[in-house]
C-alpha cells in the first residue's frame, strides 16, 4: 500500500494560493510554538508553512492548516484572510476524506483488522455507494471474515463483492488497483468470496463462482482449497440434486432410457468431482498445514473414483500425478440423449436397478472448512 496520500487538488484555488505574504514579517515555523500562534505574523507563517508542505508532506500541511483554523477569525477578518480560511477548510476536509479511504487497505491487507475495516467501509459507502475501489477491497477480502462469527461482516462482504462485480461487468474501472495486480486478480478474489461465503447455503451457485475464481492466473489457481471447495460444491449441489431425483423416480425399478440418461448426467458430475478432488490432493502435496484437509479430499477422491471404476483405484495415483497438466473442466452440459457408450453403473447396483447413494465413510469436503488463502499487500497468496 502506498504510504502517502495522493495529492489533493481543489479547483478554482490557484489565484487564491498566490495571495501575497509579507516575507519581512514572517517568523520561522519552528519558532511558532514559542510565541502567540494566532498573532498576525504567526498566522502568516503558518500559511506559508502550509503552502510549502502541501505537495511534499501532506500530514505536516494538514497539521499546520488545523493550527491556523484553530485561531479565531474575529469580526474584522479581511477578504484575503477569509479566502485563506475557506481554502484551508476545503483542503483539510478533502485530506481527511482521503486519509479515511487510504486507511481501508491498510486495515484489510496489512493489519487484518476486519471488523474495523468493514465498519469504515460502511461509512465510506454511505457517502459514496458506488465507490468501486472500496467495494473491491471489501469484497476481495470477504472470505477472510467467515471465521469471525459476525454475520454482519459476511453480509457486508457479500454485498460488496456482488456490487463490485456488477460495476466491473458494466465497464467501470479504477485508476489504482493496488495492492491487487489488476482487474483479473480482483475478479478472482471477488468470485472466491462469493463462492466461499455461499458454499454451505447454495453450493450450486457457489460452484460457478469458485470455477471462475480458478480461471485467472492468481494464487487461487494454485491453492488446494479452491479445488476442495469445487469438489464439495459439486457433491452438495448438482450431484445431490440429481441423485435425489434418480432415487425418487427410478430406485428399485427396471432400467429405462430415461433412467439411463439421468444416470449419465450423474456420472458427468461425479467425473468433475473426481477431477476437483484430485487437484486438491495434488496441490496439497506434503504441506503439513494441509495434512488434515488432504486426508479428507483423498478419502472423497478414493470413494468417488471407485464409484466410477468398478470398485478399484487402478490408475488413480497416475491421474493425480498428471491432473495439473490439464485445464480445469467447466460444469458439464446436461445430456439430452444417451452417449454412445452406456453410462457406468454405480457401486452396489445389482440386476437392472441402479443406486446413486452417496458413498459412505466421510462428509463432503465443504464441511472441513480448510483455511483459505490470504491476500498480502503485494499479491494475494496462500
Strand and helix layout:
Blueprint: H1 14-17, H2 40-53, H3 58-69, H4 79-110, H5 114-127, H6 132-140, H7 151-169, H8 183-198, H9 203-213, H10 224-250, H11 257-284, H12 291-308, H13 316-322
Helix pairs in contact: 2-3, 3-4, 4-5, 6-7, 6-8, 7-8, 8-9, 9-10, 10-11, 11-12
What's the end-to-end separation, in Å? 19 Å
Number of helices: 13
Mean pLDDT: 81
- CA radius of gyration: 30 Å
Q: How many structurally independent domains?
A: 3
Give the strand content.
under 5%
Per DSSP E runs of 2 or more residues, the count of β-strands stands at 0
Shape descriptor reads elongated
Helix and strand string, N-terminal first?
Answer: HHHHHHHHHHHHH
Summarize the amount of helix as a percent range. Answer: 55-70%
Could you walk me through the main structural features you see in this protein, from its secondary elements to its overall organization?
There is one protein chain. By secondary structure, the chain is mostly helical. The chain has 3 domains: 92 residues, no CATH class; 111 residues, no CATH class; 144 residues, no CATH class. It is 55% helix and 0% strand. The protein has 13 helices and no strands. Helix 4 crosses helix 5 and helix 9 runs antiparallel to helix 10. It is elongated, with a radius of gyration of 30 Å. The N terminus and C terminus are likely disordered.
Amino acid at each position: 500500500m502506498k504510504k502517502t496520500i495522493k495529492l489533493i487538488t481543489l479547483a478554482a484555488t490557484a489565484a487564491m494560493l498566490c495571495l501575497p505574504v509579507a516575507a519581512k514579517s514572517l517568523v520561522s515555523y519552528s519558532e511558532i510554538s514559542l510565541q502567540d500562534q494566532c498573532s498576525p505574523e504567526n498566522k502568516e507563517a503558518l500559511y506559508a508553512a502550509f503552502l510549502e508542505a502541501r505537495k511534499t508532506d501532506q500530514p505536516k500541511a494538514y497539521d499546520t492548516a488545523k493550527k491556523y483554523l484553530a485561531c479565531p477569525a474575529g469580526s474584522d477578518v479581511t477578504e484575503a484572510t477569509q479566502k485563506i480560511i475557506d481554502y484551508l477548510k476545503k483542503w483539510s476536509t478533502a485530506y481527511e476524506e482521503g486519509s479515511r479511504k487510504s486507511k481501508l487497505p491498510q486495515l484489510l491487507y496489512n493489519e487484518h483488522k476486519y471488523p474495523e475495516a468493514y465498519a469504515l467501509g460502511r461509512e465510506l459507502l454511505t457517502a459514496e455507494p458506488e465507490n468501486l475501489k472500496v467495494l473491491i477491497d471489501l469484497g476481495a477480502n470477504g472470505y477472510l471474515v467467515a471465521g469471525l462469527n459476525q454475520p454482519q461482516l459476511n453480509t457486508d462482504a457479500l454485498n460488496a463483492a456482488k456490487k463490485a462485480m456488477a460495476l466491473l461487468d458494466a465497464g467501470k474501472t479504477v485508476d489504482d488497483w493496488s495492492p491487487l495486480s489488476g482487474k483479473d486478480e480482483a475478479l478472482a478474489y471477488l468470485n472466491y468470496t462469493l463462492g466461499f461465503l455461499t458454499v454451505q447455503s447454495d453450493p450450486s451457485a457457489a460452484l460457478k463462482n469458485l470455477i471462475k475464481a480458478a480461471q485467472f492466473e492468481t494464487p487461487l489457481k494454485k491453492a488446494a482449497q479452491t479445488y476442495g471447495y469445487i469438489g464439495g460444491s459439486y457433491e452438495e449441489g448438482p450431484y445431490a440434486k440429481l441423485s435425489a431425483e434418480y432415487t425418487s423416480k427410478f430406485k428399485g425399478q427396471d432400467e429405462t432410457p430415461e433412467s439411463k440418461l439421468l444416470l449419465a448426467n450423474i456420472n458427468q458430475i461425479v467425473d468433475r468431482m473426481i477431477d476437483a478432488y484430485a487437484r486438491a490432493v495434488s496441490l496439497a502435496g506434503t504441506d503439513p498445514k494441509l495434512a488434515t484437509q488432504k486426508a479428507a479430499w483423498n478419502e472423497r477422491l478414493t470413494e468417488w473414483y471407485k464409484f466410477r471404476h468398478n470398485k478399484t483405484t487402478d490408475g488413480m495415483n497416475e491421474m493425480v500425478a498428471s491432473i495439473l497438466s490439464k485445464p480445469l473442466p467447466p460444469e458439464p452440459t446436461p445430456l439430452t440423449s444417451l452417449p454412445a457408450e452406456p453410462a457406468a453403473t454405480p457401486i452396489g447396483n445389482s440386476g437392472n436397478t441402479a443406486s446413486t447413494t452417496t458413498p459412505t465413510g466421510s462428509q463432503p469436503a465443504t464441511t472441513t472448512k480448510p483455511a483459505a488463502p490470504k491476500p498480502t499487500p503485494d499479491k494475494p497468496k496462500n
